[in-house]
């Protein structure tokens, strides 16, 4: 299988201001905007701490700020796992390139395979939703360290390792390999700054 490159040279990376404006336009409420935009900013700050020489920092930042846009389109009662696909569709409708759309659809967990979709009967079209480029992998990994739960919280590598094990030892092994590859971010200062508990 051909691994996609980080981006096509003709793909323009949107600025932070453009992405924030996009969030504000798409958010169904000020509360939704505050939750999702704050989370995306936090993920970007986490990614800045991580070692990833094969990832374009500007593209990573844009991916972090865009990855959860699909949350705005979730209907009441709709399975949360669909937010990645919905974000991909939203960006496609707005004319954004595939390079950016993939940050939405390929950041869930430590990657979803077609077998995961079938075995777990997930409400997604059968297929692989795996982070493949350096930028995609870094965004997916950084996202694991913060949750938009109520109340929002920061998640240590140890806590996420325990949580992801319920989906299989292979998922736990994948995450541990990413910790070894990228390092573990220091979440204490961020937790204090944002007032979110660290687990």
Enumerate how many helices there are, as a single number.
10
Count of strand segments: 3
Strand content: under 5%
In the CATH scheme, what's the topology name?
Hypothetical protein af1432
CATH architecture: Orthogonal Bundle
Q: What are the segments in which pLDDT stays under 50 over at least 5 consecutive residues?
A: none
Q: What structural class do the secondary elements suggest?
A: mainly alpha
The CATH class is Mainly Alpha
Radius of gyration (CA) equals 16 Å
Strand order of the largest sheet: 1-2-3
- Main sheet? 3 strands, mixed
Task: Provide mean pLDDT, rounded.
Answer: 94
Question: What percent of the residues sit in helical stretches (DSSP H or I)?
Answer: 40-55%
- Outline: globular
Instruction: Calculate the terminal CA-CA distance, rounded to whole Å.
Output: 38 Å
The helix/strand order is HHHHHHHEEHHHE
Taken together, the total number of domains comes to 1
């Amino acid at each position: 299988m051909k691994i996609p490159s980080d981006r096509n040279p003709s793909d323009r990376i949107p600025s932070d201001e453009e992405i924030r404006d996009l969030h504000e336009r798409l958010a169904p409420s000020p509360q939704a905007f505050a939750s999702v935009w704050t989370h995306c900013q936090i993920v970007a700050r986490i990614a800045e701490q991580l070692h990833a020489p094969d990832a374009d920092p500007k593209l990573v930042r844009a991916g972090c700020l865009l990855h959860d846009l699909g949350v705005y389109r979730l209907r009441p009662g709709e399975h949360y796992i669909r937010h990645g696909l919905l974000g991909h569709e939203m960006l496609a409708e707005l004319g954004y390139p595939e390079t950016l759309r993939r940050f939405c659809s390929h950041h869930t967990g430590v990657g979803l395979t077609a077998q995961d979709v079938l075995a777990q009967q997930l409400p997604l079209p059968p297929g692989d939703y795996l982070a493949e480029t350096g930028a995609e992998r870094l965004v997916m990994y950084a996202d694991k360290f913060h949750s938009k739960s109520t109340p929002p919280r920061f998640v240590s590598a140890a806590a996420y390792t325990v949580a992801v094990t319920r989906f299989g030892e292979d998922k736990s092994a994948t995450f541990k390999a990413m910790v070894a590859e990228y390092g573990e971010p220091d979440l204490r200062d961020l937790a204090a700054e944002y007032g979110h508990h660290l687990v």
